[in-house]
Design brief:
The structure holds 2 protein chains of 2 kinds. Chain A is mostly beta strands. Chain A is 15% helix and 41% strand. In chain A, the strands form 2 sheets. Chain A has a 6-stranded antiparallel sheet. Chain B is an alpha/beta fold. The chains are: A mainly beta, B alpha/beta. At the A-B interface, α1, β4 and β6 of A face α3, α7, α8, α13 and β12 of B.
Chain lengths: 95, 618
């Protein structure tokens, strides 16, 4: 059985878990917003952590820590980002 | 303005502490205007070099990169490149970095340095970095960047002399050497470099638990955050109405006394009446709102300077998303409950132009404080002071319903506008949550002073002009002796025409006549009705009571309700129209605003009137 770090989309990441962005589906996003996210350092290779999630019962927007900065973004943006948990338990992958 | 020996521009990411540095370097002598053709603020001031030479310092809008994604960022790029009309290319650029966030801020720094322009780097807010357990080496950073690096703490005035000296040196060195462009890297390459450089410049980094994370744990808590926000807003509104009241009454008394004094000193003439009834009454009716605007702006500036504003936007984003807006629209709309003018001015923080336009267009529907005197008189006269439930009066409920209608109307309009006229890319919400910081008294005072100036300048020009025009309309042509002046005036004739138009929604000719001077400001309706029904009394309370009795004999309940409904939407406020023109750079959008809001007011007032008549209240 092959083991590898667990992959989720950023919006599904448990709070306070460090993770690395593996891939971003820029095509899902509006170009200006994609530029803005990139400018804030949210692109493949960045290490992120979900700090806060939405208000009351909604899970929107998200507050993401990237480097020494906290960035607020919407769930739709988070959903376009594949992340891999860093130093977290490995999950089995069907081989 | 005195001639300057050069132009220096501050460049940096948002939240780099640029404005604080700008204030510290220039002091109170600042000029704020718009860049020609765009609603981007141009902040300029005078900075003194060690040699005593003054140079012009401009504070460019914060940007994350030179590939612009907003009008603000575009201006920054154009100024740096020397492409902005009416702006000389800066001789020296000062890149402002947040010392505790180098990895991010060095990305822009490299892009700017690559241009090869004379550049100095200000490593700002080093004190906050130290608070976070981060010790930096400016000299090492200077070697890596190939540009002088000066450690500064703008709010404590640390490093300012060194920075000025470095600017002078960069300017003089540039005179003898040609520009020196460097290889341009891609954004990803710059980001990797930034990470390496930040690591190289860091002497030690202890994991002190960051203060802002601890505050956010409470303020952004999914259940605690919103109640805290609403409690805070409640305090703000209480303050806007209670703190400002005594000063407002004082200003009002001052204008009344001033026009009374003129009336007694000058011989009776048309010119005297123009001065007292036109100029002083017109400008005065607007200036009395200055205290409220200042109190509101005090809170907004504090919320902005501390970093809480971004959290408020975060907390409200979900609700605003429901009507196609984002959390950034929340504060402008909130401000509009006091007055739409500062509200519309506050929309500048919205990056998306369509989002911003939508917010400007719906802001006048928030029930501003100028509607309260009108609501108060009509409700007191027509709505019985009956208890509906224990502790809940009918009058209060009607007032609440009027507020509610405004909000519902605004949300409906936003939904509609975002699907039609201001349709665009889904308005997203991407925003940095800055670190918490204590605001400085100086920065707050400067901010308030600038707001007050902008407001008063408008009262002195646009509103002044409209006040005179309205007075002329009401006073010419002159009536024959013994005849009513108003009936003979142009306004009187307009009212006759208007009366036909507003008859279907239950308005009589007296109301039509009142609507004309009320174009200046909504609360004018009260004094205008008082004049129409010849209720003369110097005491406000007695006048309101007398007016109420008069209204009851001349209006049906259905007419009164329609009148209230009209004021929920009618854009009868020349200050709002003027500020919309200024903020949207033309007459197109204020004209649209007038049209659609009057249309809404007409339909809503008509609906209320006919429903009331059908219910037997006519």
């Amino acid at each position: 059985m092959l083991w590898q770090p667990r992959r989720v989309t950023l919006d599904e990441l448990p709070l306070g878990t460090p993770a690395r962005i593996i891939a971003v589906d820029w095509g899902k996003l509006v170009p200006e917003e994609a530029d803005r996210l990139r400018a804030l350092g949210l692109e493949a290779g960045a290490t992120v952590q979900l700090a806060y999630r939405g208000v009351l019962w909604t899970r929107d927007p998200l507050a993401v820590e990237v480097g020494r900065m906290t960035v607020a973004l919407r769930r739709v943006h988070g959903r376009a980002m594949q992340v891999e948990m860093v130093g977290a338990t490995l999950a089995p992958v069907a081989s | 303005m005195t001639r300057h020996a050069g132009v220096v521009a501050l460049v940096g990411n948002p939240n780099a502490g640029k404005s604080a540095l700008f204030n510290a370097l220039t002091g109170a002598r600042q000029k704020i205007a718009n860049y020609p053709g765009v609603t981007v603020e141009r902040k300029a001031g005078r900075m003194i070099l060690p040699s005593g030479e003054p140079v012009e310092l401009i504070d460019l809008p914060g940007t994350y990169g030179l590939a612009a994604t907003s009008p603000d960022e575009d201006v920054t790029r154009r100024v740096i490149m020397g492409e902005q009309a009416g702006q000389v290319q800066p001789d020296v650029l000062v890149i402002v970095l947040d010392a505790s966030n180098l990895e991010q801020h060095l990305v822009l720094a490299q892009e700017v340095l690559a241009l090869g322009r004379p550049t100095v780097v200000a490593l700002n807010m080093v004190d906050l970095a130290e608070r976070d357990g981060l010790v930096l080496d400016p000299a090492a950073l200077a070697v890596e960047l190939g540009a002088p690096v000066i450690a500064t703490v703008a709010v404590r005035r640390r490093g300012l002399t060194d920075l000025a000296a470095a600017v002078a040196q960069a300017r003089d060195a540039a005179a003898s050497a040609p520009p020196n462009p460097r290889p341009v890297l891609t954004m990803t390459e710059r980001r990797l470099m930034a990470r390496t450089m930040a690591r190289g410049a860091t002497l030690s980094e202890s994991s002190v638990h960051r203060l802002h994370a601890r505050i956010d744990r409470v303020l952004l808590h999914p259940w605690l955050g919103p109640p805290i926000l609403f409690a805070l807003l409640f305090v703000v509104f209480q303050a806007v109405f209670t703190w400002a009241k005594p000063v407002q009454d004082m200003l009002d008394a001052l204008f009344t006394a001033g026009s009374g004094w003129l009336r007694n000193t000058l011989a009776p003439s048309l010119a005297r009446d123009l001065l007292t009834d036109g100029v002083i009454a017109g400008v005065g009716s607007v200036v009395v709102f200055l205290p409220q605007i200042l109190v509101l702006f005090f809170f907004i500036l504090v919320m902005e300077a501390t970093g809480y504003m971004a959290r408020a936007a975060f907390l409200m984003d979900r609700m605003m998303a429901g009507v196609g807006l984002s959390g950034r629209s929340f504060i402008p709309l909130l401000s509009s409950f006091a007055c739409a003018v500062p509200g519309i001015m506050a929309t500048r923080s919205i990056t998306d132009p369509k989002d911003r336009l939508t917010t400007i267009l719906i802001a006048p529907m928030m029930t501003c404080s100028a509607r309260l005197p009108v609501y108060a008189v009509i409700i007191a006269a027509f709505i019985p002071a009956r208890q509906v439930l224990p502790g809940v009066g009918l009058q209060g409920l009607v007032l609440l319903a009027l507020y509610g209608m405004g909000i519902i109307g605004a949300m409906g309009a936003a939904l509609l506008l975002r699907r039609t006229i201001t349709r665009g890319a889904a308005s997203g919400f991407i925003m940095e949550l800055p670190k918490y910081q204590l605001p400085t008294v100086k920065d707050l005072a400067l901010g308030l002073w600038q707001r007050a100036l902008i407001f008063l300048r408008r009262a002195g020009t646009m509103i002044f002009a409209v006040a005179i025009v309205l007075w002329l309309l009401l006073n010419f042509p002159r009536a024959a002796p013994g005849k009513d002046q108003v009936d003979a005036s142009i306004a009187g004739h307009i009212a006759n025409g208007l009366a036909v138009l507003v008859q279907p929604i239950g308005f009589n000719r007296d109301i039509a006549l009142t609507l004309i001077p009320t174009m200046a400001a909504r609360e004018v309706a009260v004094s205008s009705l008082a004049t129409t029904y010849a209720v003369a009394s110097d005491d406000d309370a007695a006048r309101a009571a007398g007016l109420g009795a008069q209204l009851k004999t001349h209006w049906s309940l259905a007419t009164a309700l329609a009148f209230l409904a009209w004021f929920v939407f009618a854009p009868q406020c020349m200050s709002t129209i003027a500020v919309t023109r200024r903020e949207t750079n033309g007459w197109k959008w204020p004209a649209f605003m007038l049209g659609y809001l009057f249309g809404l007011a007409y339909v809503f007032a008509g609906a209320v009137y006919w429903i009331a008549v059908a219910a037997g209240l006519g």
